[in-house]
Specification:
heterodimer; A: about 400 residues; alpha/beta; Rossmann fold; five-stranded parallel beta sheet; 13 helices; 14 strands; about 15% strand; B: about 290 residues; mainly alpha; 12 helices; globular
Chain lengths: ~400, ~290
C-alpha cells in the first residue's frame, strides 16, 4: 500500500484560510472605521512674495504645534483624532488668500488659521464666513478684522488699537521720567491697512501725552531707498521718530536713519516688523536703543523657553509669528476638545466661550468679546547691546529703558 | 522744506541712487538692443547675484566691493551659459519664445531661491556703513559714494569696450543689422550669448554695489526692474548713453518727488516721465526709429 502524499491544499486548510481571508477582508474596514477622522486645519500664510519670511515663520510654529498635539494623543474627546495641516500660500496677495479658503473648503477643512497680512486676513475670513467655518487670526493687526460682526472670526492677540494704547502709555511713562524731552514726533508707516491704521491712531492719541505729530510719512512696499525720508525727518527736526512697517522696510529705514545721522531722542515703533533677534544681533549699532511695542512671549514661561530652544535648534528664530501661530493651533485644539466634535457650529460655540490659557504668552485667561480676546497685550522692548530687553509691562521687564538715547 | 540746502541734498541723494539704476538699466538695454527682447528674468538674476555677494561675504568674508571682479566674471559666465544652454537653444528663432523662456526662468529662479535661501532678509553690515561725508545738509553714506563712483567707472569701461574692442563692434553691428552682420562673418549666436552675459555681468556689478546699503530676499531684485524699464524707455530702448542719462534723471526725479511730495506721491514723477516720453518722444531721449 502506498501512502498518498499530500501535495495540494486540503479542503480543511482551504476553508480555514478562506475564512481567515474573508474575516480579514471584512474586518479590516471595521478597524479603519474605528480610527477617528483627522481634523483638517487650514493654515494660510504668505510663504512666497514680499513677506514670505513672516509666513514661513508662522507655518513653522503652526506645524510644530500640530505635531505636539498629535504626539500628545490628538483630541481626546474625539477619540484621539489627529490634526491634519492643510498648508496654503497666500503669496502675499489678497485674491490668492481667498482662493486658498475656497480650495480648503472643498477639502473639508474644519477651521482656518492665518493670514499675517491684515488685508488678506480680512478677505479670507470673509470668504470663510460664507461656509460658517471658524477663522483664527494668528497675526494680523488691523482692528477692521474684528469689527465686521463676523461670528466665525477670533483673534487671540491684541489688534493695533490695543498696541497703540499700550505704546502710548509706555511712551508717556518714559517721557515723564525723561522730563518731557519729547514734544514732537514724525510717524513713518507703510501705506497698507496695517501701517496707515496704526499711524492714524497714533497721530490721534499722541497729543494726549503732550506730543504733537508733525507729519505722517507713508511709503510703499517695497521701498528701494529711504534717503529722502531721512532727509525729510531731519528737516522737520522731531524729538522722536515713530515707525510702523513690515520687516524689510523696517530694517532698511532703521539703517538709513543711522547712516544719515538722524539725531532724535528715540526711535519708537508700534508692531515694528523687523524688530527681532536677527536685527539686533546683526546690526547692533543700528538697532541700539530702538524701542518697539510688539507681541512677545512670556519670558517666565518654561513652555515658551522650551519652544524657543526647539525652534532655535532648527536654525530658525523665535519670532512672534512662530509663537502666535503655535498658540492659535493650541487654542483650536482646546476648543475641539471642549466641543468634542469638528462640527463648525459647535466649534464656534466652544471658541466663543473659551477660557484657554495661552501658556506661551503674557496674557490672562482667554475671554472673547465679539471674537477679540480681551486678555491679549503687547510688551515694550528695547534693543540694548545686541539684546532685546523687555522694558514694559513692569512684571515682565528685564531691563530699565534708556530714554532719551545718547546723541550720535 | 524748500530750503536750498535740502534741495541740494535731495539732488545728491538722487544722483547716488541713480548710479545703481544706471547699471541695472544698462544691462537691460544692452540685452534689448542686441536680442530685441525684454529680459523678464532681470530682477531674478539680480537677486541671485545679490545672494552670491552675500554668501561670499558670509562664508569667506569677502567685502562686497572686493567681490566685484569675481561676481562680475561669475555673472557673465552664468549669463553666457544660460543663453547657450537654454535661451538660445529653445527659442527656435522666435523672439517671443525668448520672452516666455525668460519669464519662466524668473519664476523658477525665484522659487528655487526661496527653497534654498528661505524668505529671510539678509544684509551685509560693513564696518564703514556708518561713515559719511557731509555736504551742506546732505549726509552722504560712504558706501553710496563708493557705489556711485564704481558705477560710473564700470559704465565708462563698458562704453569703451563697446566702442573699441572687436567684440564691442560686433555687438553693435548685430544690434544694428543682424542679417548683415551674419553675412560679413560675425558669429551672431555667439554675440547674443556674449551680450546676454554682459547684461547679467552688469547685474553682478550692481549687486556688489547694492549690498552694503540694501538687503536681499528672493523677491528683492524685482524692486529695481520696474524703474530700470522706465529708464530704458526714457533713454531710448537699446541706447547705452540713454540708459546712463535716464538713470540719473529718474534717480533725481524720484528723490525730489519723494522730498517735496512725500514718498508715495513722489513716485508719480517717474510714472509721469514714462507717460510723457511715450506721448511726446516714443523713441526715448537717445533712441532712433527702427
Amino acid at each position: 500500500m502506498t501512502k498518498q502524499r499530500k501535495t495540494g491544499v486540503s479542503r480543511r486548510t482551504f476553508i480555514a484560510g478562506g475564512t481567515a481571508l474573508a474575516t480579514g477582508a471584512i474586518g479590516a474596514p471595521a478597524v479603519v472605521r474605528a480610527q477617528p477622522a483627522a481634523v483638517k486645519v487650514g493654515m494660510i500664510h504668505p510663504v512666497t512674495g514680499f513677506v514670505a519670511y513672516n509666513g514661513q515663520q508662522s507655518r513653522l510654529g503652526g506645524t510644530m504645534a500640530i505635531e505636539d498635539v498629535n504626539k500628545a494623543g490628538g483630541i481626546k474627546s474625539m477619540g484621539g483624532a489627529k490634526l491634519e495641516a492643510l498648508l496654503g500660500d497666500s503669496q502675499s496677495k489678497v485674491e490668492v488668500g481667498v482662493s486658498e479658503v475656497e480650495k480648503m473648503n472643498e477639502q473639508g477643512v474644519a477651521a482656518y488659521i492665518g493670514c499675517f497680512q491684515s488685508p488678506v486676513g480680512i478677505a479670507a475670513s470673509q470668504a470663510a464666513a460664507k461656509y460658517g467655518t471658524p477663522f483664527l487670526v494668528d497675526v494680523g493687526a488691523s482692528d477692521l478684522l474684528m469689527s465686521r460682526g463676523l461670528k466665525n472670526v477670533f483673534r487671540l492677540k491684541p489688534g493695533f488699537g490695543v498696541c497703540v494704547d499700550d505704546g502710548i502709555a509706555s511712551l508717556a511713562a518714559l517721557n515723564k521720567a525723561a522730563n518731557g524731552v519729547a514734544k514732537t514726533a514724525v510717524i513713518v508707516h507703510e501705506s497698507g491697512e496695517f501701517g496707515t491704521g496704526t499711524a492714524k491712531l497714533l497721530a490721534g492719541k499722541l497729543p494726549s501725552i503732550g506730543i504733537a505729530a508733525k507729519e505722517l510719512i507713508a511709503h510703499d512696499n517695497p521701498t528701494r531707498n529711504f534717503d529722502n525720508i531721512a532727509l525729510r525727518i531731519r528737516s522737520l527736526a522731531p524729538d522722536i521718530v515713530m515707525m510702523s512697517n513690515y520687516g524689510n522696510e523696517y530694517m532698511l529705514l532703521a539703517r538709513t536713519l543711522y547712516q544719515q545721522k538722524v539725531n532724535v531722542a528715540g526711535f519708537f515703533s508700534i508692531l515694528g516688523g523687523g524688530f527681532n533677534y536677527k536685527f539686533v544681533k546683526e546690526m547692533p549699532d543700528v538697532s541700539q536703543y530702538m524701542m518697539d511695542v510688539n507681541h512677545w512671549y512670556n519670558p517666565k514661561s518654561p513652555q515658551a523657553q522650551a519652544l524657543k530652544k526647539r525652534v532655535e535648534a532648527t536654525g530658525a528664530l523665535f519670532t512672534f509669528e512662530v509663537y502666535l501661530t503655535y498658540t492659535n493651533v493650541m487654542l483650536l485644539a482646546d476648543a475641539l476638545e471642549h466641543a468634542g466634535s469638528a462640527d463648525k457650529e459647535k466649534l464656534i460655540a466652544a471658541l466663543a466661550v473659551s477660557t484657554f490659557k495661552a501658556e506661551l504668552m503674557p496674557y490672562g485667561p482667554t475671554k472673547f468679546v465679539n471674537g477679540q480676546n480681551q486678555g491679549g497685550r503687547p510688551a515694550t522692548m528695547q534693543s540694548l547691546k545686541g539684546e532685546i530687553e523687555v522694558i514694559a509691562p513692569e512684571e515682565f521687564a528685564s531691563a530699565k529703558a534708556v530714554f532719551p538715547k545718547p546723541k550720535l | 522744506m524748500f530750503d536750498p540746502a535740502f534741495l541740494l541734498a535731495g539732488v545728491l541723494n538722487g544722483l547716488l541712487a541713480g548710479g545703481i539704476y544706471v547699471l541695472v538699466a544698462v544691462g537691460l538695454t544692452l540685452i534689448y538692443g542686441v536680442l530685441h527682447i525684454i529680459n523678464f528674468a532681470h530682477g531674478s538674476l539680480l537677486m541671485l547675484a545679490m545672494y552670491a555677494v552675500f554668501y561670499l561675504w558670509r562664508l569667506i568674508g569677502i567685502d562686497p566691493y572686493a567681490a566685484l571682479p569675481v561676481v562680475i566674471a561669475g555673472a557673465f559666465g552664468f549669463g553666457f551659459v544660460l543663453y547657450r544652454l537654454l535661451i538660445g537653444r529653445y527659442n527656435h528663432g522666435r523672439d517671443e519664445n525668448i520672452l516666455l523662456i525668460t519669464l519662466g526662468l524668473s519664476i523658477v529662479i525665484d522659487n528655487v531661491a526661496l527653497l534654498f535661501f528661505g524668505g529671510d532678509t539678509q544684509t551685509i553690515d560693513v564696518p564703514y556703513a556708518g561713515t559719511f561725508v557731509e555736504i551742506g545738509a546732505a549726509f552722504l553714506p560712504l558706501p553710496k559714494i563708493i557705489s556711485f563712483g564704481a558705477s560710473l567707472v564700470i559704465c565708462a569701461a563698458l562704453g569703451l569696450y563697446m566702442a573699441k574692442s572687436d567684440m564691442g563692434k560686433a555687438i553693435r553691428a548685430v544690434a544694428k543689422e543682424r542679417q548683415g552682420a551674419r553675412l560679413v562673418g560675425i558669429d551672431v549666436e555667439n554675440v547674443f550669448a556674449v551680450s546676454y552675459g554682459i547684461g547679467i555681468a552688469c547685474l553682478g556689478a550692481a549687486a556688489c554695489l547694492l549690498m552694503p546699503t540694501y538687503y536681499v530676499t528672493p523677491s528683492s531684485g524685482h524692486a529695481f526692474v520696474l524703474v530700470a524699464f522706465t529708464i530704458v524707455v526714457l533713454g531710448g530702448m537699446g541706447s547705452f548713453a540713454g540708459a546712463a542719462v535716464g538713470g540719473f534723471i529718474i534717480g533725481i526725479t524720484e528723490s525730489l518727488g519723494g522730498l517735496f511730495l512725500g514718498e508715495q506721491l513722489g513716485q508719480i514723477g517717474i510714472s509721469l516721465i514714462f507717460i510723457l516720453i511715450l506721448l511726446l518722444k516714443p523713441t526715448g531721449l537717445f533712441g532712433s526709429r527702427a
